[in-house]
Specification:
homodimer; alpha/beta; Alpha-Beta Plaits; Maf protein; 3 domains; six-stranded mixed β-sheet; 26% strand; Competence-induced_CinA (chains A, B)
């Protein structure tokens, strides 16, 4: 079955909010065998909504609308869609009682216009709103189904999960199950080249690649009959991709590199300290996003000025003078210094030129060194990155996390540099 | 002029990412007199893209596409749209050179499929991609204009700002000119109440308030003919708002609190060092987003464990034992310690409980102390914040920046706490 998600709301067209509802619904529908083919957004305008609904019904079997079910005059999704199907709106007593109870509960007077929310298209399935006032509904006509959901995500999501997913699951014959593989260290086009025969040769499962800043995600999707195991379709292809991507493939469960590293550190109880220059604390800040990380993340320093590198990390003045702040040598001493200072298993350091200024012919913007110090010694990696300051910092942090991952798992670490 | 934003990408229909590009573009187009009437999303499928483009061209004057310009076989926006307009794709030498340079710079081999990105529709205006490989373009035919932009927001946004906005500005008869006023320390509904008479009474300019995490932005927009001065419409209203918001209004140029502080530090050559616990380096990381900040930001430390607070900052063991790590006393010693250690004008410290664990009845999640040490002494501020870990960290950082701003400008600093 094909679906379109049609959002109704001028605030989306004004750019005040992003259409996260479409993302949420889209991520779930494949599980019940429904492919999402289109998203669309229209404003609170009955004619444009009617036209958009007609287009959606022509090209899809299922149309899911979000928004426009509220109490104000702007809210006209129900009225418009009922009109297209030639249905009247009739008072749904149970919904009216729910709305009254809702206002009682929050201790506010129910205004007259709220009654409008209890008028529902005749012959529709009413979806109770446990988190707000506007009920949703499902209208079916022939082979077409229209589901209307409220706009606020806090109301839409539970209604969708509790009532809409079970409704479609009951009707579904096929399901699509996807696995997401995460790769760091191979660019998108190189990754595609690596597996182009698999992409071209497959119809079930299908494979798609897409790039995020500095990394690549692969989606492998199998279409199966209800009750059938997707594993036997997915596994051989995933195994083959794993073989080709090697240890650049770091997760087959759609995990971020940073959360993977945080989990590894916690699991193995490996303590860590960070010493950052051009990333300005990004690695520390990312790590400390994880609740409970204080067990292994002891501390970090951001040493921008040379004096800070000397004073806090004990980097040698001579090292800074001879090789410069952005050098393998300084990176090594920073990593060793922070590890010693905070008495951790791992010390990780970053020093580089994030730009836009500060580059020279010899040491251009984008030149970065990462140091990793541990009981088994210190290694440093050279990066030559492109892009703006923000990209250089983000990609550098990813490289640092990848180095930590490789160190913990005993994988090879390329040290970069062409000399 | 009416516009539709047409995103191309199966990853959107699979719910892997949200269509933030549409939000970004929608928030800007009104400034050049273009109203956004529709958003739509289609997958990487030439037939559905063609149909969607035709629908968009029927109902709108301007169609802006995002995505599908990359090097892989999936990427077919250019090919499809050129087809609809009956245009060939021709090699754009300059773009090919840019792409080659891009790969040289990052030290990776350019694969054959990347050349595809340099083939552009004939007679189109080429939009240079300064942050990636895929150029964009503008095709005009009769009264219709199609703009094609790359999908990654880090490439799309600067291309849109640098080339697309000026292109439309040149063609527009009316402009909407907006000023954005930034307020910290007054909530959204309190702010609206403060100026409700202005909001209700005005048609040109219009005033809108919107809340971001922890702060409020006011947009004051004047509609003017091209060449007409918006200042005389905007200024009286803005002056009145400034009077009412007082020193909580920190920018009338839509500047972030952090960038305002970075500029103040640089302008006045005030050096700073940071000592963070629960924010994990967020203040340092935010500050170091600013190019050139190394002149005044000497360094920072992230002291998660008590030992790190003692070892690096010289916080007294007794202070930690008697008052705890999350206390005014520890915050004060952290700020003083980092200032002394790195010999700066200002030392700023943060210690608190970001949750979800670690709270007690006496010291609940959301309790945070900020310390600011300078030549004129040390002050500490107590916050009691609500929300999840991420919100607590973000809002705490904003409070720290506001304290620095108030310190530098000699404004009053509330120290919080009810005793």
């Amino acid at each position: 079955m094909k679906a379109e998600i049609l959002a109704v709301g001028t605030e989306l067209l004004m750019g005040q909010i992003s259409n996260t509802n479409a993302q949420y619904i889209s991520s779930k529908l494949p599980d019940v065998g429904i492919g999402v083919y289109y998203h669309s957004v229209v404003g609170d305008n009955p004619n444009r909504l009617k036209e958009s609904l007609k287009t959606a019904l022509e090209r899809c079997d299922v149309v899911i609308t979000t928004g426009g079910l509220g109490p104000t005059q702007d809210d006209l999704t129900k009225e418009t869609i009922a009109g297209v199907f030639g249905k009247r709106l009739v008072l749904h007593e149970e919904s009216l009682t729910s709305i009254k109870n809702f206002f009682n509960k929050i201790g506010r007077q129910m205004t007259q216009n709220n009654e409008k929310q209890a008028y529902m298209p005749e012959d529709s399935i009413i979806l109770k709103n446990n988190n707000g006032t506007a009920p949703g509904c499902i209208i079916g006509q022939g082979s077409k189904v229209v589901v209307m959901l409220p706009g606020p995500p806090s109301e839409m999501k539970p209604m969708f999960d509790d009532y809409v997913m079970p409704y479609f699951k009951n009707k579904s014959e096929f399901l699509i199950e996807s696995k997401f593989l995460r790769v760091f260290g191979i660019g998108e086009s190189a990754m595609e080249t690596l597996i182009i025969d698999l992409i071209d040769g497959q119809t079930n499962p299908t494979i798609a690649t897409y790039a995020k800043e500095g990394e690549v995600t692969l989606r492998v999707s199998a279409k199966v009959k209800v009750g059938e195991d997707s594993e036997k379709i997915l596994k051989p292809v995933i195994d083959e991709i794993k073989k080709r991507a090697g240890d650049c493939l770091y997760s087959d469960r759609n995990q971020n590199l940073d959360s993977l590293v945080a989990n590894l550190l916690l699991e193995k109880n490996i303590t860590i300290a960070t010493a950052e220059s051009c990333t300005g604390g990004l690695v520390a800040e990312t790590l400390t996003n994880f609740p409970g990380i204080s067990k292994v993340f002891i501390g970090g320093v951001v040493t921008y000025a040379n004096e800070a590198k000397e004073e806090i990390l004990g980097v040698n003045k001579q090292t800074l003078e001879k090789f410069g702040a952005v050098s393998r040598e300084t990176a090594a001493e920073m990593a060793e210094g922070v590890r010693k200072r905070l008495n951790t298993n791992i010390g990780i350091s970053i020093t580089g030129i994030a730009g836009p200024d500060g580059g020279t012919a010899e040491k251009p913007v984008g030149l970065v060194y990462i140091g990793l110090s541990s009981e088994s010694g210190t290694i440093t990696k050279e990066l030559r990155l492109s892009g703006n300051r923000n990209r250089i910092r983000t990609v550098t942090a990813l490289h640092a996390f990848d180095m930590i991952r490789r160190h913990i798992l005993g994988l090879k670490i390329e040290i970069g540099g062409q000399k």
